[in-house]
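Troubleshooting log. The previous structure file for this entry was overwritten by mistake, so regenerating from the original sequence record. Sequence copied from the archived sheet and checked twice against the printout by T.R.
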Amino acid sequence: MIARIAYAFREMWASFRRNLTLTVAAILTSAIALLLVGTTFLIQRAFDNLLVQWRGDVEMIVFVRSDATPEQISLIDQTIKAAPTIIDAEKLQYLDKTQSYEEAKRIFVGDPVTLSLLTPDNIPSQFKVVPITQDPELVRSLSEQYRSLPGVQDVALAEDEFQVISTLSRFVRTVTLVMSLVLLVVAVGLIWNTIRTAMFARRREIEVMKLVGATNWFIRVPFMLEGLLHGLLGGIASCGGLWVLNSAWTNGVAGFKPGTGISSLVVPSSYLTGVMLMILAIGALVGAIGSAIAASRFLDV
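Regenerated output below.
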């Protein structure tokens, strides 16, 4: 068994070095495709961070001062619910200081300066309002009314930022996803062609091996391992590129004024690690698919 494994890896490495030009082309194409895949996931998470406070059809957020009394909070709650034909009372959410702080940790993940100034004691609590009406002017007029209530710190409206951000998010996500899928198909094709060329170059050896009783799988395994290695190397290269891009973006965002919304677009390192592991798995899968197709189709000599 050990001898067979050693043979498979030895033949894989020999074939890998024999077709160096095609091998490099396949790895680079895989790396670029996987880099775009990883970028797509990071973009999705970044925009999700930016829009996290507007989920659930929330169109207005009433921020309550950290020193507001229970009576003032109750008054705000009653005032919001006093317009049942405009506000959906059942969907009205109140996030206390602890919940607001947990949300802030995600929103300001790229702005440690601002986050360090916030604590569960001084952070504003918030009412998340879902209007029934589709009239933006009516919603805006309500926001002006809520601003005058005692205990209210500020009122934010989704229309001020949601439309542009969501449109840009969909566009960028769609473009990068389509490009990455196209390049993944190209990568599979290049790996397939590389394995096909390797098998053609060794057709005499394969014929002799089959004549002396070697099974199809014994012949296929080294070629399939070669394709798997192509995909993994492409995945490793793309992980390096993704780390560089994310680090450059994070460092660039650090130069913005604290408290700006751009800081929400920073992706936490834990999520980046998960994306890298997924890219490695996708790279291995792409390589395995391309090499398996070639090894199965061109084995007959």
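The mean pLDDT is 78. Archived copy saved in two places this time.
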